[in-house]
C-alpha cells in the first residue's frame, strides 16, 4: 500500500486521520492518504518535513490529509421515511409548544443535500410566523463549498430519494439549483462530531446524523453520540442510520417503528425504571439449618435475554472481550435468537472484524425473513422481526456497495 513512501510517514498520517475523525482503521482510505502524501513529496518536500507538519493537527497539510480521506455519499431526501415521520409526527409535536422558531442540524452533511432536504421539510411543516433555521456541518471544507453553491447534478436526484417537498428548480440543461426559500434558511460550517458543538449554535429540535457513525470506532461513536444528544433540545427528535446503534442512546427514547432509528428527548425525563440484571438471589440460604440434608436447588437455567443482558453489561463496562465470548456462547446455545446474532455481528463490526460480522448478518437476515414481519422477537428490547431484517439488509447492501 505504501510503496515508495516511508512507513513512518504513512503511519503518522493514518494516526492523524484516526485521531481527528474517530474513524476505525479499516474505514480510512489508505489510497487517499497515499495520494495526499505523494502530492506533497512531488513538490520537493522531504518525509521529515511532512512528519514534522503532521505533528501539528491544525497545520494546512494535516488538514488536507484529513480532508482527502473523507468521502460523502448523499442525495436529496435519502431515507425518505425519516422526512415523512418528521412531517407527520415530529414537527407537529414540536409545533404544539408554539415556538417562535424551529431549528435543525444535519451532522456530517457532506455536500449539503441532506441539510437542504431537512430545510425543505421543516419549511413545509412550519406554522405561519415560525422562523426555520438549519445548520449543516462537515469536516470537509471542499464539500461545504459545494453545499454553499447549492447546484447539483443527477447524482443528487435519485428514485430512492423522492421529491417530497419543494426544494430545487432547473438550472441549465442537466443541473438543478436549490430554491431561494430553502437556501435562505440553511447555513454551513466546519465542525467535528468528536467535539461538542458550540452552545452559540445549539440546541436543535431536529438532528439528522445518518450513515456517518458506522465508520467510527466504538469509543469514538459513543463520544460523538453523546455530543449530538447534548445538542438536542428537550422535546426534540434525533434520526440515525439503520445499523449505527442497536439501542437508544442515553437521554433519548425510541419512537416510531424500531427500524426507523428515530429517537425523542423527553421534555421531562424520568429516572430510569428498568433494573439492571442481577445474579440469582441467595436470600434465605443462611436460614437453612446446618444439619439439613435437603440439597439447595440449582438456579433455573437463564433465558437467552438474561444472557444477552449480561453481555450488554460487559460492553457498557468496556469488557468487550468477555462480552464477545458470552455472545458466542449464546449464539451456539440458541442459534435462532436474533438479538444475540445481531449483537455479536455489530460487536464484530465495531471491532474491525468485518469478515466475521458479514456471515452473522446473513444469518440474521435469513432467520428474520422466515418470520412474519410483525412478529415480536423477545430480547432486551421487544422488536418486530422486520427490524432485524431491515438492519441486516442495510448492512449487507452497504458492504456489497463497498465491494
TrEMBL record:
A single GO BP: methylation
UniProt keyword Phosphoprotein, yes or no: no
UniProtKB keywords: Methyltransferase, S-adenosyl-L-methionine, Transferase
All copies of domain CheR-type methyltransferase, residue ranges: 49-244
Keyword Phosphoprotein appears in the UniProt entry: no
Molecular function GO terms recorded: methyltransferase activity
InterPro entries: Bact_Chemotaxis_MeTrfase, CheR_C, CheR_MeTrfase, SAM-dependent_MTases_sf
Classification via PANTHER family: CHEMOTAXIS PROTEIN METHYLTRANSFERASE (PTHR24422:SF19)
Name of the protein this chain belongs to: CheR family methyltransferase
